[in-house]
Design goal:
32% of the residues lie in helices and 20% in strands. It is α+β, with helices and mostly antiparallel strands. The strands form 7 sheets. Strands 14-13-16-19-20-11-21 form a 7-stranded mixed β-sheet. It has a 5-stranded mixed β-sheet with strand order 1-2-3-5-4, covered by helices on one side. Strands 7-6-10-9-8 form a 5-stranded antiparallel β-sheet, sandwiched between helices. A hairpin with a 5-residue loop joins strand 6 and strand 7. Helix 1 crosses helix 2, helix 21 packs across helix 22 and helix 21 crosses helix 26. InterPro entries: Beta-lactam/transpept-like.
């Protein structure tokens, strides 16, 4: 029959259904698809609160040629493939399969943020397609067993997994509340920071407890160590109390500050250690984890509800629901859960926003829930918070420890244990992770050659701007970086920042770290030194300061300077880049290095190579000075510049030019026509090279009428480490390459 297109569109939001003649009868199939779409659309609208304003794309309905035996249909955006066993017959099995696949098509159109969340897609399709009763038929299945079946097949593409999912969906009557929350999130345009979990869907913890450990960088946000299912949400106990404290102490007047409260004798919730003072303040209540204090704080009417300004942060990193009251917030009632990964991300932002709260938590090993242990001294200076989840008999189900030091955020969850019984794992964990060299902070001024208003950033995870310690959600799309950093740092949880600017690379660059706004002081060039507008910008520095790990910074510099480097030559350059980051004062007094050739190039964070990791494991370099390097090489070059361009840098009436010892030496005619004389001057050769955009410092120059001809070889200023020469010396170690480049005496800054 060839191609046939439906001409009747019942709703403005309905797609055009196209058939190909291989599934018949075509007209009936299109009518069935239209009716199913109308029903699905109504269910979506009722739960989400509306539909997108854009029209859906065309959907092609065709025969499946590669369907597995257990599948009756499958799809991808814009295409539904169906199994038709009997030509001309649209049986009940096929109609159900069509509705199921159209539910996916509806989500791809109406909720594109959820496209990668297979559990959410399948849960929605099973719920709205009308097939749940059929999946529920069969022997009884426990909720925990069903959860294990789904967890064993995260794509939910097996019969056992779908039967398990149907069991979980049947745990509550009506439309699943978890799906409703997610659909409204889609309609509101919120980011999809965390995939749907089985626990969130069932609204209870259904899987057997498992140990989990995760460590992330405070600076770059990357996961440095992970063990167990760190993405699984479980009840959190008291581990989120610091966020209540932060919400209750953020920019409030003294009259609204957390109160001093008297302990109530004989009340179990006030059993938080011996020797409580007559009045307990918020600090001691947090360190002792006094449930009674938090409950009585709520009774005053002054406590933050649903974690206050930190509620959106916790939701963005996967909290399965906001607490209705203080018993849920402090974990006395396990109504909601959070994954260890989400906990680590939340504490990373808390450390950035409220260093005062982290400072308070360092007292936990002295007078809090981890005091008086043999491990306490080993954790001096580390901010810690514990949490214990108990069953009805008060036996521990989960123990939590969240720990933050200068560079790391660690979260440990252990089933059946209290935190004091496994805290001895924490020092060993931190030591183990720190064997990865270069995890300390590195700072760099970035994007200084660009007008700050033209730089935009986007966080594909959960982005936040800090406003005097208060987190504000960043827009989901690209927005101006100066606006994101105007009142405090900008932090992207769960992914790097993506940064773009006019004439930059398509798609932008990744920056895994934290941006802040810091206006540099005015730059005044030395008298008599010619400086181009571009050089003035570079020497001024940037309004944007970026913080990441030293190994991430080093890898970014090496990739920007010479991405082709390998082996010992790459190790040598990485050691120089890391060394120079510690000598920023020679380039920008009192500030971080810049990302231009005035310092050393840096164009965002990249995948770390083994050479960069090895370079930072080697001893520090012995030279206490800035170390220069250049691309170098021996390739000859010739360039021509106009005499006026050269004289704009060096002055008029040039007589001669020569080059030696890294300097340009030149003569200019001065005086009067009646009494002329020649004035000898010199400048660093790199001033001329950069100003004229020459490949390297020239070896020769000759005057040819209105032009000046330059000759040289290699690339760069020609000082220090010659990268091309290092490439051509495969037998030398990085130590030998650096010794050859810099010798035994400190180089001149």
């Amino acid at each position: 029959m060839g191609w046939a297109v439906a001409v009747a569109v019942l709703l403005s939001a309905s797609p055009t259904f196209v058939t190909r003649g291989d599934v018949t009868p075509e007209a009936d199939l299109r009518r069935e698809a239209q009716a199913a779409w109308t029903s699905l659309e109504a269910q979506y609208t009722a739960q989400a609160g509306g539909l997108p304003t854009r029209a859906p794309a065309t959907v092609t309905l065709q025969k499946g040629t590669s369907l597995s035996p257990e599948r009756n249909a499958q799809g991808r955006p814009g295409v539904v493939e169906l199994r038709q066993n009997t030509p001309g017959v649209l049986d009940a099995r096929m109609r159900t399969a069509l509705r199921h696949e159209l539910a996916h098509q509806l989500l791809w159109w109406a909720c594109p943020a959820s496209s990668e969340d297979r559990l959410f897609h399948e849960a929605f399709a099973l719920t709205v397609s009308g097939e749940l009763p059929a999946w529920r038929d069969g022997p009884y299945q426990s909720l925990s067993r069903a959860a294990k079946e789904v967890a064993s097949a995260p794509a939910v593409d097996t019969s056992r997994a779908r039967r398990g999912l149907a069991r979980i969906l049947g745990e509550h009557t009506g439309f699943p509340a978890a799906l409703t929350r997610r659909l409204r999130q889609c309609h509101d345009g919120a980011r999809w920071a965390m995939p749907l979990t089985v626990e969130e869907l069932a609204d209870v913890a259904v899987l057997a407890p498992e140990a989990a450990t995760v460590v992330v960088s405070r600076h770059s946000g990357e996961v440095l160590f992970s063990e167990g299912d760190v993405r699984r949400a479980v009840p959190y106990g008291s581990a989120l109390k610091p966020f209540l404290y932060a919400a209750g102490t953020a920019l409030v007047s003294n009259s609204d500050a957390p109160p001093l409260l008297a302990p109530r004798r004989g009340v179990q919730e006030w059993a938080c250690g011996a020797g409580l003072p007559p009045k307990v303040d918020a600090r001691l209540a947090l360190l002792r984890s006094c449930n009674g204090w938090f409950l009585d704080w709520e009774a005053t009417g002054l406590a933050p509800k649903a974690f206050g300004v930190w509620g959106p942060v916790l939701s963005a990193v996967g909290l399965t629901g906001l607490p209705l009251d203080m018993t849920e917030a402090i974990g006395l009632r396990s109504a909601h859960g959070l994954s260890p990964w989400g906990m680590a991300q939340a504490y990373r932002l808390l450390a950035e926003a409220r260093p005062d709260v982290l400072g308070l938590l360092t007292g936990n090993v002295d007078e809090g829930t981890l005091s008086g242990l043999s491990t306490s001294k080993a954790l001096k200076g580390v901010a810690t918070k514990t949490g214990t989840v108990r069953d009805a008999a008060s036996h521990p189900q989960f123990g939590w420890i969240a720990a933050v030091d200068a560079d790391l955020v660690a979260v440990i969850v252990r089933p059946g244990k209290m935190p004091r019984h496994f805290v001895d794992e924490l020092p060993a964990l931190l030591t183990r992770v720190r064997r990865q060299a270069g995890l300390d902070a590195a700072r760099v001024q970035v994007l200084g050659l660009l007008p700050s208003a033209t730089v935009e950033a986007r966080c594909s995870g959960a982005g936040f701007s800090l406003d005097d310690g208060t987190p504000r959600a960043a827009p989901p799309d690209f927005s101006r970086l100066d606006a994101l950093t105007s009142k405090g740092p900008a932090v992207c949880l769960g992914s790097p920042w993506r940064v773009r600017f006019p004439d930059g690379p398509d798609g932008g660059r990744d920056y895994a770290g934290v941006f802040t706004w810091s206006t540099p002081p005015p730059y005044r060039p030395p008298p008599g030194v010619p400086t181009t507008p571009s050089a003035l910008k570079a020497r001024r520095g940037s309004d944007f300061v970026f913080r990441t790990t030293r190994v991430q910074y080093t890898a970014g510099v090496v990739a920007a300077e010479d991405v082709t480097l390998q082996g010992e030559a790459r190790v040598a350059l990485a050691r120089v880049a890391a060394h120079n980051e510690r000598h920023a004062d020679t380039r920008h007094s009192g500030r971080a290095l810049c990302d231009t050739t005035h310092c050393q190039a840096f164009r965002g964070t990249v995948r770390i190579r083994p050479e960069e990791s090895r370079a930072l494991q080697l001893p520090p370099l012995k030279w206490d000075a800035w170390l220069t390097f250049s691309q170098g090489g021996a390739t000859p070059w010739r360039e021509v510049r106009t005499r006026s361009e050269v004289e704009a840098l060096l002055g008029t009436n040039l007589v001669s030019l020569r080059f030696e010892s890294g300097r340009v030496r030149y003569l200019r005619t001065e005086g009067t026509p009646a009494a002329p004389y020649e004035d000898a001057r010199s400048l660093p050769c790199d001033t001329l090279r950069a100003g004229l955009k020459l490949p390297s410092c020239p070896q020769r120059a000759s005057f040819d009428g209105p032009q000046v001809r330059f000759e040289g070889q290699g690339r760069g200023h020609g000082e220090g480490l010659d990268v091309e020469a290092a490439k051509a010396s495969p037998g030398l170690s990085s130590d030998a390459l650096l010794e050859h480049a810099y010798g035994t005496r400190p180089p001149t800054p």
